[in-house]
Design goal:
single chain, 787 residues, alpha+beta, Ubiquitin-like (UB roll), 7 domains, 16-stranded antiparallel β-sheet, 3-stranded mixed β-sheet, 13 helices
Length: 787
C-alpha cells in the first residue's frame, strides 16, 4: 500500500475517534434532559423567585446546550450576579449564583475643585451610589472620568486612590481619596506663523495668560488666568479666530496646537501654529430671498460698505440688524443668513443677505412671572406691546425697559415663544425679579450740637402691589422736630398722568444745618401732576404753599446767637413769611433702569416761583443731567461691565418782582454724598459772621464715577463699587462764581441696595485741593435714600 494512502487512512481514523469522543462528552454534560424541577442556590438578598423570573425556561422544558447558554447570558445580563452556573441533579436543574455585593457606603474625599454633590448625583445615575450593586467597571470608569476632568482643568499631578472594603452580608464600602496637587500654570504661550500681528497683540485676545513676567497681567494671580483649562483654551482659540476674521483674514486657520508639560507636571507650554492667509475686502453686497420690505429700508440696516476690510463681526451685526428690523414689522422669527463668496483673484468678498422672514406673527398673550408682590395690572400698564397686535421687537424691548425702570423691580428677562400648533401666534413672557419695595430708616445718636436724636422714615414704592408710592418720615432731637408725608399715584389717570400730594411740619430750635442759630417753624404742602408728552419725557406742574416763622435763638448758655446776615434779613423782611409756589418742570429719561443704570441719560429741569400774594417773591431753577457710558464699548480689552457715569447740576435762586431777599433757609448748600464727597453735608461755600456755613444762591456740581466690576454682583444690579471724582461749590450768587473756588475730591464708593433699609452708601475721599476753611468728612455713610 502506498505511503500516502496509509497516511490518509490514519487521519480519517483520528477524525472519527475525535468525533465519537466529543459526542460522548456532550452526552455526559447533562445539557440534554427534560427539566422536572428548578432549584436556586447561592442567593443572599434576593428571593429564589426573583431569579426564576429572569430564567428563560420553565419546568417541563427540555434543556439543551443552546438553551443553557441562553439562560446563563440572561442571568448575567441582569447585572445582579458575579457568577452563574447550571448543574444537573437527576432531572432537577440547579441554578448556582453568586450575587454582586451591595454598596453600603460611598465617599469621595479631597476633591476640592471638582464638585462633590454634583459628581455624586451624576454617578448615582450610572448606578454608583449607596444601595446599588457594586461593579468594578463602574469604579474604573469613575477614576478615568475624574482624571479626565482634573487634566482638563490643569491638575496633571492628581493622584486617585480607590479602596473597596468587604463588609458582612455581602456588602462593600467604597472610599475614593483624591490628592489634587497643584494646578499646572502656563509658563509660555508661543504663537508661530503670525506675520501681520505681534505675539503680544494676539496674547491680549486670550483669556489665558502666561505666568512669565514678560506678559503677566496685574490681576493674573487674583483671577487665576495663568491656570490651564482645556475649555478656556478652546474659547481662546475661538477668540483668536474672531480676531482675524474681524480684520479681513477670511482664510485664517489654526493649523495645530501642542500642549507640553514640564517633567514635574507643574508648568505648561502652549504652542499654537497659525496660517493667517491674505486680507480681504468687501466687493459688494446684495439681498435675496423674500423681500417683504423695500430694499432701501434694508440698506439702512446694513453697517458694512463696499471697499471696507471684511469683518465677520460687522457682517453678523448687519444680519442681526436686518432680523431685528423685520421683527419690528411683526416677523418675530425672521432668519437672515449672510452668505459669502470669496474671490481669490482680487482678494475680495461678495455678500448675499438671504432673507427668510417667515410668517407675520401676532401676540396671543403676555404673561408675567415672579411678581409675587406686584399686581399683574400694575405691570401690564407699562406694556408697549399689546395682546392681539402684530409682534414688534421694539415694543417688546421698550416694555422690558419700562418694567426694569420701576423702583420695585430689580431685573427683567423676556422670552418670545411660538404657540404650539400655530404658525403666526407667539406668547411673550416677562420674568421679573422684584426688589424690596419698602424702605425703613431708623437712627439713634448723640452729637454735641444737637444732643440726643432719633430719626426714622418709612417708604414704600409699591404700596399693596399697585405701584403707588407712600413715604412717611419723622425726626426729633433736643432742638428739632419734624414730620412729613407724601403719596404718589403714577397712574392717576389711565393715560399715565401722575399725582403727588405732600405735606410737612418742622419745628427747629436751632437750624444746625445752616449753622446760624435761629428757631424756624415751617408747615407746608403741595400737589404736583406729571404729564407724559413722549415715551421718554414728561412735564410737571403743581401748586404749593408754605409758611415759615423765624425766631431768635439762644445757645445752651442762654446767650443770643443771631448772625449778622440773619439779623439783616429779619430787619428787612420780618420774621414770618407765607409763600405760594408755582412748580414747573420737564424731564427726559432714557436710562435702562432707575437704580444702577448702565446706559442712557436723565435730564431734569425745574423752575419754581413764589408767585403773587407771597410775602417773599423769589424763584429757584435748576438743570441736572446724568449720562451713562459703557467703557468697554470704547476701549478694547476692558470689561463691558465697566460703566462711566457723569451727573452735573447747576442751580440758582434769586428775587423777582418786589422781592428783596432770598430767605437763608432756602439757600443752596454743597458738600456731602450728593454733591462733593469728602466734605461734610452743607460744609462748602459762604459762611456767616460766626464762620458757619450759610449757603448761597448759585450752585454747580459734577460727579463722575467709574463702575468697577466686582465678584459680589456680576451684573451690578444690587451692588456697585465705583471710583469717583467730584467737583463743585456753592456761591453767594452767580456773579461770584470763580472756577478757582471749585472744590475737588476723589475716592472710592460702595453702594448696596439692601432688602430692608434701601440704598446704603459708603464713600472715602481724598482731597485734590487744600480744604482750607471748609468742613471736611473723608468717610461718609448713609442709608435709606435713593440715588
Amino acid at each position: 500500500m502506498p505511503v500516502c494512502v496509509s497516511r490518509a487512512l490514519a487521519v480519517l481514523l483520528c477524525l472519527f475517534a475525535a468525533s465519537a469522543w466529543a459526542q460522548a462528552q456532550s452526552s455526559n454534560s447533562g445539557y440534554d434532559f427534560r427539566v422536572d424541577d428548578v432549584r436556586v442556590v447561592g442567593v443572599q438578598r434576593l428571593e429564589p423567585g426573583t431569579v426564576l423570573t429572569y430564567l428563560p425556561l420553565s419546568v417541563g422544558d427540555r434543556l439543551s446546550e443552546a438553551r443553557a447558554q441562553q439562560s446563563i447570558r440572561a442571568l448575567y445580563d441582569t447585572g445582579l450576579f458575579e457568577n452563574v452556573a447550571l448543574q444537573r441533579e437527576g432531572n432537577t436543574l440547579v441554578v448556582d449564583v453568586t450575587e454582586r455585593p451591595e454598596i453600603a457606603s460611598f465617599s469621595i474625599e479631597g476633591n476640592k475643585n471638582i464638585g462633590g454633590e454634583q459628581l455624586k448625583d451624576a454617578l448615582a445615575q450610572q448606578g454608583l451610589a449607596q444601595g446599588e450593586l457594586y461593579k468594578r467597571s463602574l469604579v474604573d470608569q469613575l477614576e478615568q472620568e475624574l482624571r479626565r476632568q482634573y487634566y482638563a482643568n490643569g491638575y496633571y499631578s492628581v493622584a486617585i486612590d480607590t479602596e473597596v472594603k468587604e463588609l458582612d452580608n455581602n456588602r462593600v464600602a467604597i472610599d475614593i481619596d483624591v490628592t489634587e496637587g497643584e494646578v499646572a500654570s502656563i509658563k509660555d504661550i508661543n504663537i508661530i506663523g503670525n506675520e501681520h500681528f505681534s505675539d503680544d497683540e494676539l496674547r491680549d485676545v486670550f483669556e489665558l495668560k502666561a505666568s512669565s513676567p514678560a506678559y503677566t497681567h496685574p490681576l493674573t494671580f487674583w483671577r487665576s488666568r495663568d491656570r490651564y483649562s482645556r475649555e478656556k483654551l478652546l474659547g481662546d482659540l475661538e477668540s483668536l479666530n474672531s480676531f482675524y476674521q474681524n480684520r479681513g483674514y477670511v482664510r485664517f486657520n489654526v493649523s495645530s496646537i501642542q500642549v507640553s508639560l514640564s517633567p514635574d507636571n507643574r508648568n505648561i507650554f502652549l504652542t499654537i501654529n497659525v496660517d493667517e492667509g491674505d486680507q480681504y475686502t468687501i466687493n459688494d453686497y446684495e439681498f435675496a430671498g423674500d423681500m417683504i420690505v423695500p430694499q432701501t429700508s434694508l440698506q439702512r440696516l446694513v453697517t458694512v460698505e463696499p471697499g471696507q476690510t471684511f469683518s465677520r463681526g460687522d457682517v453678523d451685526a448687519s444680519a442681526n440688524s436686518i432680523s431685528s428690523g423685520l421683527a419690528d414689522f411683526g416677523y418675530a422669527f425672521a432668519d437672515v443668513d449672510p452668505l459669502t463668496r470669496v474671490n481669490e483673484e482680487d482678494k475680495t468678498v461678495d455678500l448675499t443677505f438671504f432673507i427668510d422672514p417667515g410668517k407675520r406673527a401676532y401676540v396671543r398673550q403676555i404673561t408675567f412671572n415672579g411678581n409675587d408682590k406686584t399686581n399683574d395690572e400694575t405691570l401690564r400698564r407699562e406694556m408697549r406691546q399689546f395682546e392681539g397686535a402684530p409682534f414688534s421687537r421694539r415694543g417688546v424691548e421698550r416694555s422690558r425697559t419700562r418694567l426694569a425702570r420701576l423702583p420695585y423691580i430689580q431685573d427683567v428677562q423676556v422670552n418670545t415663544e411660538k404657540v404650539a400648533g400655530s404658525e403666526d401666534l407667539v406668547d411673550v413672557d416677562y420674568d421679573v425679579t422684584e426688589r424690596a419695595a419698602g424702605t425703613l430708616q431708623f437712627g439713634v445718636g448723640f452729637s454735641d450740637a444737637q444732643g440726643f436724636l432719633v430719626n426714622g422714615s418709612v417708604s414704600h414704592s409699591n404700596f399693596r402691589g399697585t405701584g403707588n408710592r407712600l413715604s412717611l418720615r419723622a425726626e426729633t432731637n433736643d432742638y428739632a422736630k419734624s414730620v412729613g408725608a407724601s403719596w404718589t399715584d403714577p397712574y392717576f389717570t389711565d393715560e399715565g398722568v401722575s399725582r403727588t400730594i405732600s405735606g410737612f411740619y418742622r419745628n427747629t430750635d436751632q437750624l444746625i444745618r445752616i449753622g446760624s442759630g435761629f428757631d424756624l417753624n415751617s408747615v407746608g404742602g403741595a400737589v404736583t401732576f406729571g404729564l407724559p408728552i413722549t415715551e421718554y419725557s414728561q412735564l410737571r406742574a403743581g401748586l404749593g404753599v408754605e409758611r415759615n416763622e423765624i425766631n431768635s435763638a439762644v445757645n445752651r448758655n442762654g446767650e443770643q446767637r443771631l448772625s449778622d446776615e440773619l439779623a439783616e434779613f429779619i430787619d428787612e423782611n420780618g420774621k414770618e413769611a407765607t409763600t405760594y409756589e408755582l412748580q414747573t418742570g420737564w424731564s427726559r429719561d432714557t436710562r435702562n433702569r432707575t437704580f444702577f443704570a448702565t446706559r442712557g441719560t436723565n435730564t431734569e429741569f425745574q423752575f419754581n416761583i413764589k408767585g403773587p400774594g407771597s410775602d417773599l417773591e423769589y424763584y429757584d431753577t435748576s438743570l441736572e443731567h446724568e449720562r451713562y457710558f459703557r467703557v468697554g464699548a470704547w476701549v478694547p480689552g476692558l470689561s463691558d461691565k465697566m460703566v462711566l457715569s457723569m451727573d452735573g447740576r447747576v442751580a440758582q435762586t434769586d428775587v423777582w418782582g418786589d422781592g428783596e431777599d432770598v430767605p437763608p433757609y432756602d439757600n443752596f448748600f454743597a458738600g456731602g454724598a450728593r454733591s462733593v464727597r469728602g466734605y461734610s453735608n452743607g460744609g462748602l461755600g459762604p459762611r456767616d459772621s460766626f464762620d458757619n456755613p450759610f449757603g448761597g444762591q448759585f450752585l454747580t456740581t459734577l460727579q463722575s464715577e467709574l463702575v468697577i466690576p466686582t465678584f459680589l454682583e456680576s451684573d451690578n444690579k444690587s451692588t456697585r463699587l465705583t471710583a469717583f471724582y467730584d467737583i463743585g461749590n456753592v456761591y453767594e450768587d452767580a456773579s461770584a462764581f470763580e472756577a478757582s473756588d471749585l472744590r475737588k475730591s476723589a475716592g472710592v464708593a460702595f453702594y448696596w441696595f439692601t432688602p430692608f433699609f434701601g440704598l446704603l452708601r459708603v464713600s472715602y475721599a481724598a482731597y485734590v485741593d487744600d480744604p482750607d476753611n471748609d468742613d471736611v468728612d473723608r468717610f461718609q455713610f448713609s442709608f435709606g435714600v435713593g440715588l
